[in-house]
């Protein structure tokens, strides 16, 4: 979630008035859409974790490395002297990361406590009373043997009832699959359209109010930036590129993406795409591109990893009927 585009698009107002060209307007709109994506990015995953009552699907290492990337990005923004609104947004990113990490740790600790209590109750219930007659103890123990209930139900003439219940469950899954697939498709599409509208409207308001204005380009297209800020930019790019690898590996090991919010990764892809495009729309001069290279690498490079996660959603959805149709 880098903010380097602000150096060109939201810098302090220059003395001379710069005409608004279509390319500069596109850069401003794309940058605004990108910021809108980042602002709402973590909300879908927070809601998904709340609905599931756990956060087992998301890799804590993924969040930790991403958090480090946002911290280095914030320090780099302060070092580069970006305008206050951009620094404030960078602070928001760090706070949002902290909220998601805290939620994941909370659910992990809570569910571990519940599992431990359940295990203790189950263990104490299985301890036989020494006063219980041996015959009665054998009879009661047999009721708790793994598979004993399945064998008894299969031997009943009503084995038909077991098969019928399985058929009902399968039918319910098919109905749930169709409903969740359509609702997820509509939700994701509507969310993307809303982000585009909000981002464009935000740019228009910023332009009309004078918060945003076209920025003149230097002859070499470069932007002055401290060397330390540039180094932190590369550090944040490395963090952003490496953050998704633990999540991709976890999905591969679990052979599932259940519990992950697809909209979370859709907004990430859209944010990175509009971010990189916004930089290149502003200028493709060598000096400017080299100045913004670490942020371009961090944004456009992670798109490949986001697409990999989309492939995992589709691949593992074929193995888990509950997720089929969830991919836009």
Automatic annotation (TrEMBL):
Alphabetized GO MF terms: basic amino acid transmembrane transporter activity
Topology of this chain in the membrane: Multi-pass membrane protein
InterPro entries registered for this protein in UniProt: LAAT-1 (IPR051415), PQ-loop_rpt (IPR006603)
Positions of region (Disordered): 140-161
Cellular location(s): Membrane
Keywords per UniProt: Membrane, Transmembrane, Transmembrane helix
Record carries keyword Transmembrane: yes
Keyword Lipoprotein belongs to the record: no
GO CC term (a single one): lytic vacuole membrane
GO BP term, pick one: vacuolar transmembrane transport
Transmembrane segments: 25-47, 59-79, 85-107, 190-207, 227-245, 257-275, 295-313
Cross-referenced Pfam families: PQ-loop (PF04193)
Catalysed reactions, semicolon-separated: L-histidine(out) + L-arginine(in) = L-histidine(in) + L-arginine(out)
SMART domains reported in the protein's UniProt record: CTNS
Signal peptide: none
Family of the protein in this entry: Belongs to the laat-1 family.
Protein name according to UniProt: Vacuolar membrane PQ loop repeat protein
Lineage of origin: Eukaryota, Fungi, Dikarya, Ascomycota, Pezizomycotina
């Amino acid at each position: 979630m880098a903010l380097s585009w602000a150096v060109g698009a939201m810098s302090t107002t220059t003395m001379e008035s710069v005409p608004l060209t279509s390319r500069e307007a596109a850069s401003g709109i794309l940058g605004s859409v990108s910021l809108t994506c980042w602002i709402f990015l973590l909300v879908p995953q927070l809601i998904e974790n709340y609905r599931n009552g756990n956060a087992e699907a998301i890799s804590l290492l993924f969040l930790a490395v991403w958090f480090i990337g946002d911290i280095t990005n914030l320090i780099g923004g302060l070092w580069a002297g970006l305008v206050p609104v951009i620094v404030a947004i960078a602070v928001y990113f760090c706070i949002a990361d902290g909220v998601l990490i805290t939620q994941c740790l909370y659910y992990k600790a809570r569910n571990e406590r519940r599992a431990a209590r359940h295990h203790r109750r189950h263990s104490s219930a299985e301890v036989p009373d020494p006063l219980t007659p041996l015959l009665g103890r054998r009879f009661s123990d047999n009721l708790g043997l793994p598979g004993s209930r399945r064998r008894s139900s299969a031997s009943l003439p009503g084995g038909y009832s077991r098969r019928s219940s399985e058929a009902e469950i399968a039918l319910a899954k098919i109905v749930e699959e169709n409903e969740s697939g359509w609702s997820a498709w509509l939700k994701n599409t509507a969310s993307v359209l809303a982000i585009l509208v909000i981002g464009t409207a935000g740019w228009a308001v910023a332009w009309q109010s004078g918060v945003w204005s076209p920025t003149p380009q230097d002859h070499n297209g470069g932007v002055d930036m401290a060397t330390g800020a540039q180094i932190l930019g590369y550090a944040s790019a490395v963090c952003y590129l490496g953050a998704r690898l633990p999540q991709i590996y976890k999905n591969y090991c679990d052979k599932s993406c259940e519990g992950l919010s697809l909209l979370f990764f859709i907004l990430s892809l859209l944010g990175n795409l509009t971010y990189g495009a916004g930089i290149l729309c502003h200028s493709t001069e060598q000096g400017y591109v080299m100045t913004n290279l670490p942020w371009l690498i961090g944004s456009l490079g992670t798109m490949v990893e986001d697409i990999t996660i989309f492939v995992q959603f589709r691949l593992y959805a074929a193995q888990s009927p509950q997720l089929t149709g969830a991919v836009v």
